[in-house]
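Changelog-adjacent note: as of this version, every example in the card shows the full chain rather than a window. The one below runs 401 residues end to end.
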Amino acid sequence: MHTMRLPAIPPARQPNRRRVLAGALTLPWLGLSGTQAQEKTTEKTPEKTPNAPIKIYQSTALTGPLGDLGSAMHYGATAAFTVVNERGGVHGRQIELSTQDDGYEVARAKANIEKMMHEPDCFALFNCMGTAMIQAVLPQVLEAGVPLFAPFTGAQLARTTGARNVFNIRASYADEADKIVRHLTTLGITRIALVYQNNTFGQDVLVGVQEAMALLKIAPVVTATVKDDSSDALATAQKIASIPGEAVIVGLAGKPALDFVKAFRPLRRGISVYGLSVLGTSANIKALGADATGLAITQVMPLPTNLVVPVVRDFHQAWKTQGTTTSASHLALEGYINARIFIEALQRAGKEPTRAAFIDATWNLKRINLGGFQISASSTARSASNFVELTMIGRDGRFFR
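Full-length structure tokens:
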């Protein structure tokens, strides 16, 4: 387990305390909330700040097939926490993030989280990753009452009615599917095929597509599934290619998504292919090569290169203080925004926050605008954000709107 350490950054590039503090003082969001607006910018000595740090825990993939996703979000979150800690913390208390790698393996993640929940200093679980992982630990989390803040999944199973200790930020997979269907119909495209994974994630996409189509009074031309081991990806691609569709929605992730797209693109070059945010990772784009060009991908965060958006500018400024050469991606921005929202809720929970006060504070986050990204907590069955936009992958592998 490591605490606020970024394993991919060589020692020579570790954050410089003066540089981080100097960058922190120019970030406008740090001066807007309560006590911190009144604090001096000079660092406080340990003697003057005896309060113990707020300890939060995270299990995520730093290695393995989705290690690039987990690492990017982890780096983004630590960028925000590092800046606020260098400014003096929240009500004078540091935020300490301890992260354990689970390699995107359910058994490892479950063991990590069960151990973390029983740590005497565990205040909350933060940004734990994976639908299957969250599904495996959710009963214990609900029973323990520990805050599960911003789990990285768009699955409905994490959006449980009455589960106040689970706070979802990112838009759901159903929201992403709805966005694609509505976009296609505005273009006059109604002959839409759907291929989805034969698991919980795929079922969520299927429901989202079906509900959107029902509201718009259209029906899919054909639906087909791909197994988790992708053994039937080619056969499914041939089936989808044989029907007179105008667009295909790809409700797949990981290897099934890559194998299907690689098999399908040569068969129907002229048909539009739409995927969800989980498909649009740098590793996937690299693996797809030329087949990635022209793919339309939904995103649940603003374009991380769009410096016109204030929160993106803040993110880039915080990102630079770490000295990391990792790309400033959608996922890194998501980690940063999740941390920003956590900081805001912690600020509202008071000088001596309890878990109960923090949970209450999360559900009182109404109409919060971070500068181009808004959240509003409404129901435990819904995400705090409904932000979804469509992007396309260019020939250089970069996203544009």
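Structural remarks: The radius of gyration is 21 Å.
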